[in-house]
Each structure stands twice: as structure tokens, then as C-alpha cells.
Write a structure and sequence with these properties.
This protein is α/β, with parallel strands linked by helices. It has a single domain, classed as 3-Layer(aba) Sandwich (Rossmann fold), CATH 3.40.50.720. The chain contains eight helices and seven strands. The protein has a seven-stranded parallel β-sheet, sandwiched between helices. α5 links the parallel β5 and β6. α1 crosses α8, α3 packs across α4 and α4 packs parallel to α5. The chain is globular, with a radius of gyration of 17 Å. Pfam families: adh_short_C2. Belongs to the short-chain dehydrogenases/reductases (SDR) family. This is SDR family oxidoreductase. Keywords: Oxidoreductase.
Amino acid sequence: MARALEGKVALVTGGSRGIGRAIAERLARDGAAVGLTYARDEAAAAEAVERIRKDGGRAFAVRAEFGRHGDAADLWAAFAAAAGDHAPDGKLDIIVNNAGIGRSAPLATLTEDGFDELFAVNVRAPFFIVQQGLTRLRDRGRLINISSGAARLAMPEAIAYGSTKGALDTFTLNLAKELGSRDITVNSVAPGVVDTDVNADWLRGNPQAEAHAAALAALGRVGQPEDVADIVGFLASDDARWVTGRVIDATGGAGL
């Protein structure tokens, strides 16, 4: 039986760890050749690629740093160089904008530099990655933006971060309208608290923090990277061909 994404090529930004790595692994299991980007930790990216290959999948690492002008152009040049036989024509079928940074700073203490960095990485980079990637993305392709429950729930301690994800959701909505004529679907996936290395310092080994995070979700537990990755896997597949312009809540029912 053919796998859902057999013959497809995918790009997952920030795919060397956490949610991005789980997404890369899921898309590879479904048959896609996955390019996963990393900023500095080449060893983590190599390990992620090796694990996918050991499991019978196809993957390659792409070095890309986001947050400065020209980052999208550099990404696509690096993608073309790294893809090799996986994408000899430079084309692909799935783009997952997952790379992002978080800042827990309230309005009173957030600096202008911190604000600019958040929007440069979380909003400007995905915008121009897509802009410059549209000639590479095949018709009937999939664009999936990783948003956050912080765009829907009031979190004053992360006001700028939530604002970046709200902007990303608006980007999703408009892209879905613009690209519908090419049969390209565009959706956001909005996780809540997820047990990744980014949250490890305050979450892991802290029963009180874990209990608090679990209590936020109606399903009563902390999210896992695979919880988000499996939603992305669905959206990337043909089963989701009639879903576009949506923000898919992946918080386990936070704020209900």
C-alpha cells in the first residue's frame, strides 16, 4: 500500500528538534523526502536526518538562520544545494513554517530590539520564504504554518509573541484565498504547551509546573511533539484537500 506522501518533497523549517523534528519524522514516515533546517546545531540536524534514514525515510539537512534581511533567499539557495537527487528540479510539494522564537516579556519590559527580533523570525521570515518559494511549490501543494494558542488566548506575559502568531494566522488566511486557484491549501496549526527542550528548563522535573500545564488543557495532560506532528501529517495529505484557510487548534482544549 502506497504511503500518503510517496514521491513528495517537503521543507520543514526548524526541523532538527522539538515539534519541527517530530513533523519531519512524520512526513518522512508518510513517504516524503524532507529537508529540515537548522540554525547552528549541525550535530542535532545530522542526528535527526540519520534517524529518519534508519527508519527507511529520506531526509537532508539545510542550514538556515532567520531574523535578518536576505534570510529567505539564503534558505532557498541552501535548499537547492542540499536537496540533490531528492529534488533535482528544485521543486517541492510541502512547506512547513515551523521555525520561531519565543519571548516571555510583558508590555512594560519588552525592548524594541526584542520586539523586532520576534517579528523578524516569526513573521517576516515565513512571509518571504513563501513569497520566494511560490515558484518552487507545485500546484496542489501544501503550506502549513505553525502558530500558537497564544494567538487566541490572552497571555500578557507573552504579548509580542502572541502578536506574531496572530499575524501568522492572518497570513495563512490571505494565502489560502490567493493560492486557492492553484489548488494549494494553506492552514495554521496552533499548539499549546508542548514538552520540548525549549520548555524543559521550567517544565521537566517540576511536578507543580507539569500539573499546571496539564490543567490548562481539557484533555488533562501536557502536549507532545507527536500530537502536533500528526495534525500536520493530516494537513499535508490528500485527505485534507478540502481544508484551507483554517487555524487548527492543537492545545488539547486549552481555554474551553
